[in-house]
Design a protein that fits this description.
Largest sheet: 10 strands, mixed
Order of helices and strands: EHEEEEEHEEEHEEHEEEEEEEE
CATH class of the largest domain: Alpha Beta
Number of strands: 19
Structural class: mainly beta
Strand content: 35-45%
Radius of gyration: 22 Å
Length: about 280
Protein backbone atom coordinates (compact mmCIF):
# COMPACT_ATOMS: atom_id res chain seq x y z
CA UNK A 1 0.00 0.00 0.00
CA UNK A 2 1.46 3.33 -1.07
CA UNK A 3 0.11 6.86 -1.55
CA UNK A 4 -0.67 10.05 0.35
CA UNK A 5 -3.28 11.17 2.85
CA UNK A 6 -3.83 14.92 2.99
CA UNK A 7 -4.61 15.42 6.67
CA UNK A 8 -6.20 18.57 8.10
CA UNK A 9 -4.27 18.64 11.38
CA UNK A 10 -6.05 19.96 14.44
CA UNK A 11 -4.52 22.62 16.66
CA UNK A 12 -2.95 20.86 19.66
CA UNK A 13 -1.95 17.65 17.85
CA UNK A 14 1.70 17.08 17.07
CA UNK A 15 2.72 16.04 13.57
CA UNK A 16 4.16 12.83 15.04
CA UNK A 17 0.79 12.02 16.65
CA UNK A 18 -0.93 12.33 13.26
CA UNK A 19 1.61 10.02 11.62
CA UNK A 20 1.24 7.42 14.38
CA UNK A 21 -2.55 7.45 14.04
CA UNK A 22 -2.31 6.94 10.27
CA UNK A 23 0.24 4.18 10.78
CA UNK A 24 -2.15 2.32 13.10
CA UNK A 25 -4.94 2.63 10.54
CA UNK A 26 -2.93 1.59 7.48
CA UNK A 27 -0.46 -0.85 9.08
CA UNK A 28 2.38 0.43 6.87
CA UNK A 29 5.35 2.73 7.55
CA UNK A 30 4.39 6.42 7.26
CA UNK A 31 5.98 9.84 7.38
CA UNK A 32 4.78 13.44 7.20
CA UNK A 33 5.86 16.08 4.72
CA UNK A 34 6.71 19.33 6.51
CA UNK A 35 6.28 19.53 10.29
CA UNK A 36 3.50 21.66 11.76
CA UNK A 37 3.91 22.95 15.31
CA UNK A 38 1.24 21.80 17.81
CA UNK A 39 -0.10 25.39 17.79
CA UNK A 40 -0.69 25.19 14.02
CA UNK A 41 -3.51 23.55 12.11
CA UNK A 42 -4.06 22.72 8.48
CA UNK A 43 -2.52 20.79 5.62
CA UNK A 44 -0.19 17.97 6.68
CA UNK A 45 0.49 15.48 3.85
CA UNK A 46 1.33 11.99 5.12
CA UNK A 47 3.14 9.53 2.86
CA UNK A 48 2.30 5.84 3.22
CA UNK A 49 4.69 3.04 2.39
CA UNK A 50 7.18 3.74 -0.37
CA UNK A 51 5.58 7.13 -1.10
CA UNK A 52 7.89 8.51 1.59
CA UNK A 53 10.77 7.96 -0.87
CA UNK A 54 9.37 10.87 -2.88
CA UNK A 55 9.70 13.50 -0.13
CA UNK A 56 12.83 15.00 -1.70
CA UNK A 57 10.73 16.09 -4.67
CA UNK A 58 8.56 18.28 -2.43
CA UNK A 59 11.19 20.04 -0.33
CA UNK A 60 11.22 23.14 -2.51
CA UNK A 61 7.46 23.42 -2.98
CA UNK A 62 5.57 26.56 -2.04
CA UNK A 63 3.52 26.63 1.13
CA UNK A 64 0.73 29.05 2.01
CA UNK A 65 -0.20 30.06 5.55
CA UNK A 66 -2.74 32.23 7.30
CA UNK A 67 -1.23 33.62 10.48
CA UNK A 68 -2.15 36.12 13.17
CA UNK A 69 0.63 38.23 14.67
CA UNK A 70 0.18 40.15 17.90
CA UNK A 71 2.32 43.30 18.21
CA UNK A 72 3.44 45.01 21.40
CA UNK A 73 4.09 41.80 23.33
CA UNK A 74 6.11 38.61 22.96
CA UNK A 75 6.72 35.25 24.59
CA UNK A 76 9.77 32.96 24.90
CA UNK A 77 8.30 30.51 22.39
CA UNK A 78 7.15 33.28 20.01
CA UNK A 79 3.62 31.87 20.16
CA UNK A 80 0.76 31.64 22.64
CA UNK A 81 2.10 28.43 24.21
CA UNK A 82 4.02 30.43 26.85
CA UNK A 83 3.43 33.50 28.99
CA UNK A 84 4.11 37.06 27.84
CA UNK A 85 7.66 37.97 28.81
CA UNK A 86 8.13 41.40 27.23
CA UNK A 87 5.98 44.28 26.06
CA UNK A 88 6.52 47.07 23.54
CA UNK A 89 4.74 49.77 21.58
CA UNK A 90 1.67 49.17 19.42
CA UNK A 91 2.46 49.98 15.75
CA UNK A 92 -0.03 51.34 13.23
CA UNK A 93 -1.14 49.20 10.30
CA UNK A 94 0.56 51.57 7.85
CA UNK A 95 3.89 51.04 9.61
CA UNK A 96 3.56 47.28 9.31
CA UNK A 97 2.59 47.42 5.63
CA UNK A 98 5.57 49.67 4.92
CA UNK A 99 8.14 47.10 6.11
CA UNK A 100 6.63 44.01 4.46
CA UNK A 101 8.62 44.40 1.22
CA UNK A 102 11.78 43.81 3.29
CA UNK A 103 10.52 40.30 3.98
CA UNK A 104 9.90 39.15 0.42
CA UNK A 105 12.40 37.36 -1.79
CA UNK A 106 15.34 35.44 -0.38
CA UNK A 107 15.96 36.50 3.21
CA UNK A 108 17.95 35.26 6.20
CA UNK A 109 16.11 34.05 9.28
CA UNK A 110 17.40 33.09 12.70
CA UNK A 111 15.26 30.12 13.81
CA UNK A 112 13.31 30.49 17.06
CA UNK A 113 15.11 29.28 20.19
CA UNK A 114 12.18 26.92 20.74
CA UNK A 115 12.66 24.97 17.51
CA UNK A 116 13.86 21.55 16.39
CA UNK A 117 17.18 22.91 15.13
CA UNK A 118 20.12 20.98 16.62
CA UNK A 119 22.90 22.52 18.68
CA UNK A 120 25.67 20.18 19.87
CA UNK A 121 23.42 17.18 19.36
CA UNK A 122 20.40 18.61 21.20
CA UNK A 123 17.23 20.22 19.89
CA UNK A 124 16.90 23.95 20.43
CA UNK A 125 13.67 23.56 22.38
CA UNK A 126 15.38 21.11 24.77
CA UNK A 127 18.17 23.58 25.53
CA UNK A 128 15.70 26.46 25.87
CA UNK A 129 13.60 24.52 28.38
CA UNK A 130 16.76 23.85 30.41
CA UNK A 131 17.53 27.56 30.46
CA UNK A 132 20.77 27.06 28.51
CA UNK A 133 22.15 30.02 26.54
CA UNK A 134 22.90 29.21 22.89
CA UNK A 135 22.86 30.75 19.42
CA UNK A 136 21.36 29.47 16.19
CA UNK A 137 22.90 30.30 12.83
CA UNK A 138 20.78 32.22 10.32
CA UNK A 139 19.37 30.27 7.38
CA UNK A 140 18.22 31.41 3.96
CA UNK A 141 14.51 31.09 3.21
CA UNK A 142 12.34 32.43 0.42
CA UNK A 143 9.15 34.45 0.88
CA UNK A 144 7.14 34.77 -2.34
CA UNK A 145 4.49 37.05 -0.87
CA UNK A 146 3.18 38.43 2.41
CA UNK A 147 0.11 40.59 2.88
CA UNK A 148 -2.21 41.80 5.64
CA UNK A 149 -5.70 40.33 5.27
CA UNK A 150 -7.41 42.15 8.12
CA UNK A 151 -7.06 43.49 11.65
CA UNK A 152 -8.46 40.99 14.15
CA UNK A 153 -7.82 42.87 17.42
CA UNK A 154 -6.35 46.24 18.49
CA UNK A 155 -2.83 44.75 18.44
CA UNK A 156 -3.39 41.77 16.13
CA UNK A 157 -3.39 41.38 12.34
CA UNK A 158 -4.05 38.40 10.10
CA UNK A 159 -1.57 37.75 7.29
CA UNK A 160 -1.33 35.50 4.27
CA UNK A 161 2.19 34.21 3.64
CA UNK A 162 3.42 32.27 0.61
CA UNK A 163 6.89 30.86 1.20
CA UNK A 164 9.35 28.10 0.48
CA UNK A 165 10.05 25.12 2.70
CA UNK A 166 11.89 25.63 5.98
CA UNK A 167 10.42 29.07 6.71
CA UNK A 168 9.69 29.79 10.37
CA UNK A 169 6.48 31.81 10.60
CA UNK A 170 7.10 32.54 14.30
CA UNK A 171 10.45 34.06 13.37
CA UNK A 172 8.70 36.17 10.73
CA UNK A 173 6.37 37.62 13.40
CA UNK A 174 9.38 38.42 15.59
CA UNK A 175 11.32 40.07 12.76
CA UNK A 176 8.45 42.15 11.34
CA UNK A 177 7.75 43.47 14.84
CA UNK A 178 11.43 44.33 15.30
CA UNK A 179 11.41 46.18 11.98
CA UNK A 180 8.71 48.54 13.30
CA UNK A 181 10.44 49.03 16.65
CA UNK A 182 8.51 46.65 18.86
CA UNK A 183 8.06 42.97 19.73
CA UNK A 184 5.56 40.42 18.47
CA UNK A 185 4.49 36.80 18.43
CA UNK A 186 2.22 34.38 16.57
CA UNK A 187 -1.24 33.78 18.00
CA UNK A 188 -2.71 31.64 15.21
CA UNK A 189 -1.21 29.63 12.36
CA UNK A 190 -2.91 27.57 9.68
CA UNK A 191 -1.29 26.01 6.63
CA UNK A 192 -3.72 26.21 3.71
CA UNK A 193 -1.50 24.69 1.01
CA UNK A 194 1.64 22.58 0.70
CA UNK A 195 2.57 22.06 -2.94
CA UNK A 196 -0.40 20.39 -4.63
CA UNK A 197 -2.04 19.57 -1.28
CA UNK A 198 -4.71 22.12 -0.29
CA UNK A 199 -7.07 22.62 2.63
CA UNK A 200 -10.06 22.10 0.29
CA UNK A 201 -9.06 18.45 -0.20
CA UNK A 202 -7.71 17.84 3.33
CA UNK A 203 -9.51 15.40 5.62
CA UNK A 204 -9.69 15.73 9.44
CA UNK A 205 -7.93 12.87 11.17
CA UNK A 206 -11.02 12.02 13.21
CA UNK A 207 -12.95 11.21 10.01
CA UNK A 208 -10.62 8.34 9.17
CA UNK A 209 -11.56 4.82 10.21
CA UNK A 210 -10.17 1.36 9.46
CA UNK A 211 -13.06 0.96 7.03
CA UNK A 212 -12.84 4.25 5.07
CA UNK A 213 -9.26 5.58 5.13
CA UNK A 214 -8.46 4.11 1.71
CA UNK A 215 -11.27 6.23 0.22
CA UNK A 216 -9.11 9.29 0.91
CA UNK A 217 -5.84 7.81 -0.36
CA UNK A 218 -4.21 9.92 -3.10
CA UNK A 219 -2.38 7.82 -5.69
CA UNK A 220 1.35 8.32 -5.59
CA UNK A 221 1.88 9.13 -9.25
CA UNK A 222 -0.90 11.75 -9.28
CA UNK A 223 1.15 14.13 -7.11
CA UNK A 224 4.20 14.10 -9.38
CA UNK A 225 4.29 16.75 -12.16
CA UNK A 226 6.60 14.71 -14.42
CA UNK A 227 5.92 13.36 -17.93
CA UNK A 228 4.75 9.75 -18.20
CA UNK A 229 6.82 7.00 -19.83
CA UNK A 230 5.19 3.67 -20.70
CA UNK A 231 7.39 2.10 -23.37
CA UNK A 232 10.62 1.63 -21.45
CA UNK A 233 13.39 -0.79 -22.37
CA UNK A 234 12.99 -3.82 -20.08
CA UNK A 235 16.65 -3.58 -19.08
CA UNK A 236 15.80 -0.37 -17.21
CA UNK A 237 13.96 -2.44 -14.59
CA UNK A 238 17.16 -4.40 -13.89
CA UNK A 239 18.95 -1.15 -13.13
CA UNK A 240 20.58 -0.77 -16.55
CA UNK A 241 20.96 2.70 -18.04
CA UNK A 242 19.34 2.88 -21.47
CA UNK A 243 19.55 5.23 -24.44
CA UNK A 244 16.49 7.42 -25.08
CA UNK A 245 15.52 10.36 -27.29
CA UNK A 246 14.06 12.50 -24.53
CA UNK A 247 14.72 15.88 -22.96
CA UNK A 248 16.71 15.92 -19.73
CA UNK A 249 14.60 15.72 -16.58
CA UNK A 250 12.57 13.42 -14.37
CA UNK A 251 9.90 11.03 -15.66
CA UNK A 252 7.18 8.82 -14.19
CA UNK A 253 7.90 5.24 -15.27
CA UNK A 254 5.12 2.69 -15.86
CA UNK A 255 5.49 -1.05 -16.38
CA UNK A 256 2.50 -2.85 -17.83
CA UNK A 257 0.37 0.21 -17.09
CA UNK A 258 1.34 0.16 -13.40
CA UNK A 259 3.34 3.01 -11.84
CA UNK A 260 6.82 1.69 -11.15
CA UNK A 261 8.78 4.71 -9.95
CA UNK A 262 10.79 7.57 -11.37
CA UNK A 263 13.62 7.78 -13.86
CA UNK A 264 16.04 10.56 -14.73
CA UNK A 265 17.21 11.45 -18.22
CA UNK A 266 20.55 13.15 -18.70
CA UNK A 267 22.33 13.49 -22.02
CA UNK A 268 20.07 10.97 -23.76
CA UNK A 269 20.53 8.31 -21.06
CA UNK A 270 17.68 7.10 -18.82
CA UNK A 271 18.64 5.84 -15.38
CA UNK A 272 16.50 4.58 -12.46
CA UNK A 273 15.83 7.21 -9.82
CA UNK A 274 13.30 5.99 -7.25
CA UNK A 275 11.68 2.54 -7.28
CA UNK A 276 8.26 2.38 -5.59
CA UNK A 277 7.08 -1.13 -6.39
Amino acid sequence: MTGFLNIDKRKGDTSAYVVNRVKRLAHVPCGHLGTLDPLASGVLPVGLGNATRLFDYFLGKRKTYRARFCFGATTPTLDSESEIAERGRLPQEEEIRAVLPRFTGEIEQIPPQFSAKCVDGKRGYELARMGRAFELSPKKVEIFGISILCQTAPAEFEFEIVCGGGTYIRALARDIAFAVGTVGYTTMLRRTQSGIFTEETAVPLERLTPQNWQDFLIETDSVLPFPRLDDVDERFFQGVRTQVSLADGLYKIYRGGVFYGTGAVEGGVLRPDKKLC
